[in-house]
């Protein structure tokens, strides 16, 4: 269940069980238990083994000094890993939205941790829009958009005027704002923190592969539409789409770029696609409501492992299944090469900047304004709540 040498954790578990019987715990003992909680400065969020292992056995720190089994984690990734001094920890969600939501909820609500000052650093690979970035690049998002949370009709059963089979819940057409709102459609994170993190990441020496260099050249068209795809890997600030469905092709690429623009009222800039971020953000937001996490301390970094659509003259199937584009290896390596500077930047500027937090000048949170403030996307707090069905359901019950 836990590493035998971790005396702190052993006492934590005892403290945890004492806390379950909260009412009977004397005040002093209660306080002491709180102080024993693990309070990492940075929590690295990985989604699967290769993303996690790139942080293992590195010269800067040993994140495998403590392995802590946390109830609710994935059966294949049951442990949180931490450095000897617990300043840096790592969790591995498992892939897809359900795994991400369940794992992050379990950690965020676990009595083992005090995460009120913790920076959550989502650091994974992703598909990439060749109009915005290229293989191996590291991207930093302000918005995470759950693009497939929509109606879908197979496009072959729609009139030929439709350009996509997806249209928002409660909407009659693909370009209409959803009128049935679940609350996880869009998350907006701290834009000021994003700029700082991207600046730290630019200190990194990103790597590339000869295969990726050759594959990228296919996107070099006379129109220049995919200029970003032809350039060497770099740090790019652009947004991430979340979908359990791993998609490929021009139609879905364009459709979900449109969805990102629509859901974020024109601000979102779709560049990467992955299967977890909105789920992770929803869990961190629910914990923030109870002051267990700070939603202004989240960084979403995705490195590009493959293109979301084929190069001109190629096909969506080839792009997904048969191309050896060579982006995967540099994307994994660049999680570390870019991300290590984000982690070190936070730790080395802890007292001056990060302990107190980086104030967000943008709205942060969800479409309901759950954490306060007016969302700068969506129909506004009041209307979003009405459209959530919360009120409708109540009246149905009557
Ligand atoms: C969590 O850590 C913060 C910052 O160090 C501290 O102020 C707070 O009392 C701690 N809360 C708990 C529940 O341990
Ligand atoms: C923690 O787990 C990793 C990976 O399973 C292992 O390599 C490492 O030795 C473990 N650390 C401790 C302290 O047991
Ligand atoms: C997912 O999260 C991103 C980033 O916070 C946000 O921009 C996006 O709107 C979210 N999408 C959905 C559908 O929740
Ligand atoms: C950057 O990385 C490349 C590829 O790994 C390496 O050849 C080069 O020496 C590195 N440059 C610096 C300045 O570290
Ligand atoms: C793109 O193609 C043009 C014309 O063939 C060439 O001059 C240019 O160097 C190419 N750019 C890249 C980045 O490959
Ligand atoms: C995306 O939006 C543009 C502009 O409204 C539209 O022309 C295009 O058909 C849309 N593409 C898809 C696939 O929905
Ligand atoms: C976002 O766009 C929708 C319609 O597309 C509109 O009803 C809403 O007021 C806009 N919200 C903001 C915050 O501008």
Automatic annotation (TrEMBL):
Region forming the signal peptide: 1-22
GO cellular component annotations of the record: endoplasmic reticulum
Pfam families: NUP
Keywords: Signal, Transport
Keyword Signal applies: yes
GO biological process: transmembrane transport
Domain of life of the organism encoding this protein: Eukaryota
Role according to the record: Nucleoside permease that transports adenosine and guanosine.
PANTHER family assigned: PURINE NUCLEOSIDE PERMEASE C285.05-RELATED
Entry similarity comment: Belongs to the NUP family.
Protein name as annotated: Purine nucleoside permease
Organism: Penicillium frequentans
